[in-house]
Design a protein that fits this description.
There is one protein chain. The model has no long low-confidence stretch (mean pLDDT 96). A six-stranded mixed sheet has the order 1-2-3-4-6-9. Strands 10-25-24-23-11-12 form a six-stranded mixed sheet. A six-stranded antiparallel sheet has the order 14-13-16-21-18-19, with no helix packed on it. A hairpin with a 4-residue loop joins strand 13 and strand 14. With 758 residues, the chain is of the alpha/beta class. It has four domains: 270 residues, TIM Barrel (Alpha-Beta Barrel), CATH 3.20.20.300; 193 residues, 3-Layer(aba) Sandwich (Rossmann fold); 123 residues, Galactose-binding domain-like (Jelly Rolls, Sandwich), CATH 2.60.120; 105 residues, Immunoglobulin-like, CATH 2.60.40. Helix 3 crosses helix 4, helix 4 packs parallel to helix 6 and helix 15 runs parallel beside helix 16. Bound molecules: beta-D-glucopyranose. Beta-D-glucopyranose (BGC) binds next to loops. The site of beta-D-glucopyranose has 6 residues, from loops.
C-alpha cells in the first residue's frame, strides 16, 4: 500500500516546471512541463537553450488549414522530445471576445468552430509524439485585466455555444491529455475550484480522462480545489497540496478517493508520455517559413503585389530591422536565429519611425559567466535570462561580456533593463554602479518587463568597445538585458529620411506594428492605434510613392487610418523566426499569401461591438451573451475594416457549385487566374426565418481547395449536427429551413442552397 503522503507528492510541482519522480508509484523520473504555444521553451527560460519559434497562434488560425496545424503540432512534439519535455502547456483556445485582450495574439479566433478545428489538429500532432498537450485556459480567460481575481459572469448558453465549445471539441475529438484551469472565476467560483465545470462537465459529461493542471499559482484552497476537480497544482511555490492535502484527507474534509482519482490520472499521463516514438523528423525552420507565408493575410492589393524581382525597393520601419516575431509573456521562446526583413529583402533601408520605448538588446554574441562556478554560456544578444538556474547553480554574480560596434559616430546609448545591483563598464570605463529598484508591485511584470536605465557613450564610426555588465545574483533567477541604441536623428528627421528614400524607389515597403509594451501577458490593450508615429510615417511615404505596400507586424487587430492611401496591406501577425524570408517569399510571389482573417478587424476600436475588458467591482459581465465577433457585427449597421474570413490571394476563384449530399456540403470552385493557388472555402449556416435569439449566420465548416490555373476542384465540408443546435438546458436541434452558404468570406458569399436538418 502506497501511503497518502507519497500519493500526494505526485500531484504537485517540485519546482517551477516538474512533477517529482515517485518510484513507489512507478514513476521513476520527473514529469517535465513547458510553455507553449509557438515553440517549446524548456524549463530554463533562456536564450542559452534555443527553440524553433513559429508564428503566433492568430497566424496559425489564419491559415484555416488543419493539416498544417497538425504538422505544427508534430514539430512541437519533436521539439518537446528534444528538450526532455513531456507536457506542453498549449494550445491557448480562449476566444477573441474583445480586441483589447492582451493575449489575443496567443489565442486563435473569435469563432469557436475555427478555434476547435485548429486546436484538434494541433493537439493530435503534439500527442503523436507521446507528448501531452494541455489545452488552456479553462475557461473564460479571454482578457487579462485583474486576471487572478476577475469573476466572469456568463450565461450557460454562451458558455456552451462559445467559450466551452473549443475545449469540448478538442477534448472529444482531439483527445487532449491535459487541460489547464484558468486564474479567473466563472459565475462566482474560481476556476481551479469549479466542480460544476471541471468535474461535472469536463470530466463527467465529456469523459475527459486526462489531468487538470492549475495555471501557475492559480490554486489556493486545498479542500475547495481538490473537491472542485483540480488534479495537479503548479508550481511548487505556494502549492495548496503537500502536507495541507494530507491533513485535509486525514481530517475528513477531502475523501481519499479524490486523491486516488487524481493520482490515477497522473499515472495515466505518465503511461502516455513515458516512451519516445520514432517519427520522421520535421524541419522546423522550413516549417516556420511555410506557416508564416501561409498565414499572411493580403487585406488590400491594387495589383502592386507580387512585386517583380529587380524592383528598387525602399524598406522602411524599425520593425523591418528588428522584426517583432512573437508576443510577450509566457508564450516567449528563444529562437537560435531570427531573420528580419532587412536581411531577406534587397532594399535601401530607413527607420522612419521607431515605436519602441525601450532599447533593443545589444546584438551579440555575449558570454555569460556564473561567478564562483565554472558555468558559462554564449548568448545571441544582450538578454540574460534564466528562470531556473542551470544545474541548480547559485552564482554570487553573473557577468555578461561582449563587444559593441559603432556603425555610426556620435552619442550611443547603453541600457540596463533589470532590477537589483549592477555595474556597467565600456572600454574599461565605469558607466554605472548601483541598484535599480522595481517600478511595479506585480512580480510577473517586474520579471517580464523590468525597468530600464540608460547611459550615454560617445563612439566614433567604426569603433568597437568591450562592454561588461555585472549583476549580483540575489535570488535563484536571472533576468536582465543590456540594451544598445545607435545615434539616430530626431523623429522628424527619421520620417524625412524615409520619405526621401521612398521617393527614389519603385516600391516602398513600410513595416509597422506593435511592441512588447502593447501585446503581452498580464495586461490588456487600451488602444488599437499603432504606437509612436507609424501612422504619420505611412501617410507621408504614401504621398510620395503610390506603390506603397504596408506590412502590419502585429499579433492582433490595429487601426489602419491610411488604408485608402496605400497600394497594398499585408497582415503578417507575429511571424516567428523566419519573418524576413517568409515576407520575401510572399512579396515576390514565391508563395501566395494564404491567410484569411480568423477575427474581424474594426475600422476603429470604438466600432468593436465588445471592447471593454475592465471589470466593475471585480465582475466582468459578458452581457453580449452569445453575440461576439462577427456574430455581433452582423446585427449592427457598422461595417468592419476587414470582415471575418477575408483575405486575397494571387489568383481568383469562381464558385461553380454547391450541393448538399447527406450531411455534407460539396463545393466546386475553379481557379480563374493564371497561377496556382489555394482557396479557403467557408460554409455558413443561416436560418431562413429571422430569429432574434440567434445570430444571422455562423460558420459551420471550411476546407482548403488547391488548384492550378483553369482547374476545377471540389471539396466536401461536413455539416455537423451541432451547427443546427442551441443550448437550451441541453443541446436542441432547431428544426426548419436553413440556407447553407458557400463563401470566400462572411461578406463575400457566393452560392447558397436550402437545408432542413433532421
Ligand atoms: C500563464 C500560462 C502559462 C503559465 C506557465 C501563466 O502565467 O497564464 O499560460 O502556461 O504561466 O508559464
Amino acid at each position: 500500500m502506497v501511503s497518502l503522503s507519497v500519493k500526494v507528492r505526485l500531484l504537485s510541482g517540485q519546482d517551477m516546471w516538474t512533477l517529482p519522480a515517485v518510484p513507489e508509484l512507478g514513476v521513476p523520473e520527473p514529469i517535465v512541463m513547458s510553455d507553449g504555444p509557438i515553440g517549446v521553451r524548456g524549463t530554463q527560460w533562456t536564450a542559452g537553450d534555443p527553440s524553433i519559434a513559429l508564428p503566433s497562434p492568430t497566424a496559425l488560425a489564419a491559415t484555416w488549414d488543419v493539416s498544417l496545424a497538425q504538422r505544427v503540432g508534430r514539430l512541437l512534439g519533436q521539439e518537446a522530445r528534444r528538450k526532455g519535455v513531456h507536457v506542453l502547456l498549449a494550445p491557448t483556445v480562449n476566444l477573441h471576445r474583445s480586441p483589447y485582450g492582451g493575449r489575443h495574439f496567443e489565442a486563435y479566433s473569435e469563432d469557436p468552430v475555427l478555434s476547435g478545428a485548429i486546436g484538434v489538429a494541433y493537439v493530435r500532432g503534439v500527442q503523436e509524439h507521446g507528448v501531452a498537450a494541455v489545452v488552456k485556459h479553462f475557461v473564460a480567460n479571454d482578457s487579462e485585466t485583474d486576471r487572478f481575481t476577475v469573476d466572469v459572469r456568463v450565461s450557460e448558453r454562451a458558455l456552451r455555444e462559445l467559450y466551452l465549445a473549443p475545449f469540448e471539441t478538442i477534448v472529444r475529438e482531439g483527445g487532449a491529455w491535459g487541460v489547464m484551469a484558468a486564474y479567473n472565476a466563472v459565475n462566482g467560483t474560481t476556476m481551479t475550484e469549479h466542480a460544476r465545470l471541471q468535474r461535472e462537465i469536463l470530466k463527467g459529461e465529456w469523459g475527459f480522462d486526462g489531468v487538470i493542471v492549475s495555471d501557475w499559482g492559480a490554486a489556493h484552497d486545498t479542500v475547495a480545489a481538490m473537491v472542485g476537480g483540480l488534479d495537479i497544482a503548479m508550481p511548487a511555490f505556494g502549492s495548496p497540496w503537500g502536507d495541507a492535502l494530507v491533513d485535509a484527507v486525514r481530517s475528513g474534509d477531502v475523501p481519499e478517493s479524490l486523491v486516488d482519482d487524481a493520482v490515477a490520472r497522473v499515472l495515466r499521463l505518465y503511461e502516455r508520455v513515458r516512451a519516445k516514438r520514432d517519427l520522421p523528423t520535421v524541419d522546423g525552420v522550413a516549417l516556420a517559413r511555410e506557416v508564416a507565408a501561409r498565414s499572411f493575410v493580403l487585406a488590400v492589393n491594387d495589383g502592386v503585389l507580387p512585386l517583380e524581382r529587380g524592383a528598387r525597393i525602399a524598406l522602411i520601419g524599425a520593425l523591418a530591422k528588428d522584426a517583432r516575431v512573437m508576443g510577450g509573456g509566457s508564450a516567449q521562446v528563444y529562437p537560435a536565429k531570427t531573420v528580419a526583413p532587412v536581411e531577406a529583402i534587397d532594399a535601401v533601408y530607413a527607420i522612419g519611425a521607431d515605436p519602441r520605448t525601450k532599447l533593443p538588446p545589444a546584438p551579440g554574441p555575449f558570454v555569460a559567466r556564473f561567478i564562483g562556478t565554472s558555468y558559462e554560456a554564449t548568448l545571441p544578444d544582450g538578454e540574460a535570462r534564466w528562470m531556473e538556474l542551470p544545474d541548480g547553480l547559485m552564482p554570487e554574480a553573473v557577468t555578461l561580456s561582449g563587444r559593441i560596434a559603432a556603425s555610426r559616430g556620435g552619442t550611443h546609448e547603453l541600457a540596463i533593463r533589470g532590477i537589483g545591483t549592477f555595474s556597467l563598464t565600456a572600454g574599461g570605463r565605469t558607466l554605472f554602479a548601483g541598484t535599480i529598484e522595481p517600478d511595479s508591485g506585480d512580480p510577473a511584470a517586474v520579471f517580464l518587463s523590468p525597468p530600464e536605465r540608460r547611459f550615454p557613450l560617445e563612439l566614433a564610426a567604426g569603433e568597437e568597445v568591450e562592454v561588461v555588465v555585472r549583476h549580483e545574483v540575489a535570488i535563484p533567477l536571472i533576468s536582465f538585458a543590456l540594451g544598445h541604441g545607435e545615434p539616430v536623428g530626431t523623429p522628424e528627421e527619421l520620417i524625412d529620411e524615409a520619405v526621401a528614400v521612398a521617393r527614389a524607389a519603385d516600391v516602398a515597403v513600410v513595416v509597422v506594428g506593435t511592441t512588447e509594451e502593447v501585446e503581452s501577458e498580464g495586461f490588456d490593450r487600451t488602444t488599437l492605434r499603432l504606437p509612436g508615429r507609424q501612422d504619420e510615417l505611412v501617410s507621408r511615404v504614401a504621398r510620395v510613392n503610390p506603390r506603397t505596400v504596408v506590412v502590419v507586424n502585429a499579433g492582433s487587430p490595429v487601426e489602419l487610418p491610411w488604408v485608402d492611401e496605400v497600394a497594398a496591406v499585408l497582415l503578417t501577425w507575429f511571424p516567428g523566426q523566419e519573418a524576413g524570408n517568409a515576407l520575401a517569399d510572399v512579396l515576390f510571389g514565391e508563395s501566395e499569401p494564404g491567410g484569411r482573417l480568423p477575427t474581424t478587424w474594426p475600422v476603429s476600436a470604438s466600432d468593436s461591438p465588445v471592447l471593454s475588458t475592465t471589470p466593475a467591482d471585480g465582475v466582468l459581465s459578458y452581457s453580449e451573451d452569445i453575440f461576439i465577433g462577427y456574430l455581433l457585427w452582423q446585427r449592427g449597421d457598422t461595417t468592419p475594416r476587414f470582415a471575418f474570413g477575408h483575405g486575397l490571394g494571387y489568383t481568383t476563384w469562381e464558385y461553380l457549385g454547391l450541393e448538399i449530399e447527406g450531411d455534407s456540403a460539396r463545393v466546386t470552385v475553379r481557379n480563374t487566374g493564371v497561377r496556382s493557388g489555394r482557396e479557403v472555402v467557408q460554409v455558413y449556416v443561416a436560418p431562413r426565418e429571422p430569429d432574434d435569439t440567434r445570430p444571422v449566420r455562423w460558420l459551420a465548416g471550411f476546407a482548403v481547395a488547391e488548384a492550378g490555373p483553369g482547374e476545377t476542384v471540389a471539396v466536401a465540408i461536413p455539416l455537423p449536427e451541432r451547427a443546427f443546435q442551441v443550448w437550451d438546458s441541453g443541446w436542441r436541434t432547431v428544426p426548419g429551413a436553413y440556407l447553407i452558404e458557400a463563401a470566400h468570406s462572411i461578406d463575400d458569399r457566393r452560392l447558397s442552397a436550402s437545408f432542413h436538418p433532421r
